[in-house]
Design brief:
Helix content: 10-25%
Strand order of the largest sheet: 6-7-8-9-10-11-12-15
Largest sheet: 8 strands, antiparallel, barrel
Strand content: over 45%
Number of helices: 3
Order of helices and strands: HEHEEEHEEEEEEEEEEE
Length: 306
């Protein structure tokens, strides 16, 4: 414990030159990190302090990289040891904590047994350092298939595509899409004509959300606005007619997303949609459709993080 703690203390800016060089024979380390993080020489010296001066059973090649992601710092460790390759990702509040956790992780991996002088004691990873299989990425492109029961007659399928910006706690996204045509019918005239309306919707969507991340799963509550153009075509009238009217809706609902890969996220959502602007659609002065005050929308999405 003392050996590892002294190694971590050595990473503080005031202690970078306070320790003599130590050998980590059998380790080839490259370290790519912002200027605010400890340097490669300091990481290697901390490892040497924790492991002692001895040869490794086999050569180990380690490439470490640190990068700021939102409010956190992500460290990725890629290792090659003989025929074995591995990767571990660590996420912490700042570069110092992330680097400390990386040193602990490497010390556990490189420990081939106690050195001649003293046993090795490695401290556990602190609670405020999170090991993650799928680190969050700030930007995402997504497509969402929806089934809408709010804006058009009946239930209408549709598709959205957009981009999102995400931090560990909040997210915002914008998207554009369309609902496929839906039809409703009214009365049948004396001469056998059935009055009807076929309507479709093109719309833009904006959402803000708060979420909680638990491992690969994200639980969210989102709210926002949809603004679109509702295009309607009348059928059955003596004179064919069509119109374009404005539709506005407010949405609120939960969402669940699951990271199935470092870059691929699948999701599902349920929204209550309130129509703030409810245009009347008429054929031969007869109102055949008006959006309901409140409806539901279901969605299933696929996202690509970048």
């Amino acid at each position: 414990m003392r050996r590892l703690l002294s190694a971590l203390i050595a990473l503080s800016p005031t202690a970078w030159t306070a320790h003599a060089d130590a050998s980590t024979r059998g380790l080839e380390l490259t370290w790519d990190a912002p200027a605010e993080c400890p340097r490669a020489a300091d990481v290697e010296r901390a490892l040497a302090e924790s492991l002692g001066d001895r040869d490794r059973a086999d050569a180990v090649v380690v490439h470490g990289s640190a990068k700021r992601v939102g409010d956190s710092v992500r460290v990725e460790l890629d290792t090659v040891r003989g025929d074995s390759r591995g990767r571990r990702t660590l996420l912490a509040e700042n570069c110092r904590l992330a680097t400390d956790a990386a040193i602990v992780s490497l010390a556990l991996m490189l420990d081939d047994g106690p050195p001649a002088a003293a046993p090795v004691a490695v401290a556990p990873v602190p609670d405020h350092v999170q090991s993650v299989a799928t680190p969050p990425r700030a930007r995402r492109a997504f497509v969402t298939g929806v089934v809408d029961g709010a804006a058009l007659p009946g239930v209408a399928p549709g598709l959205l595509a957009g981009v999102a910006w995400e931090t560990p706690r909040i997210r915002a996204h914008v998207a554009a899409g369309a609902l496929l045509p839906a039809r409703t019918e009214g009365r049948t005239t004396i001469d056998g004509r059935t009055l009807g309306i076929e309507a479709r919707l093109w719309f833009a969507s904006a959402r803000g959300e708060m979420h909680v991340v638990r491992g690969p799963m994200t639980f969210a509550l989102a709210t926002g606005l949809d603004v679109g153009v509702l295009h309607a075509r009348g059928t059955g009238a003596w004179v064919p007619s069509s119109t374009d009217v404005l539709w506005i809706g407010a949405a609120l609902g939960p969402a669940l997303r699951v990271a199935v890969h470092d870059r691929l996220i699948l999701g599902a959502e349920v929204e209550a949609v309130a129509s703030l602007l409810r245009p009347e659609l008429r054929v031969d002065v007869e109102t055949l459709f008006r959006p309901a005050p409140l409806g539901m929308r279901l969605g299933a999405s696929a996202e690509l993080a970048f």
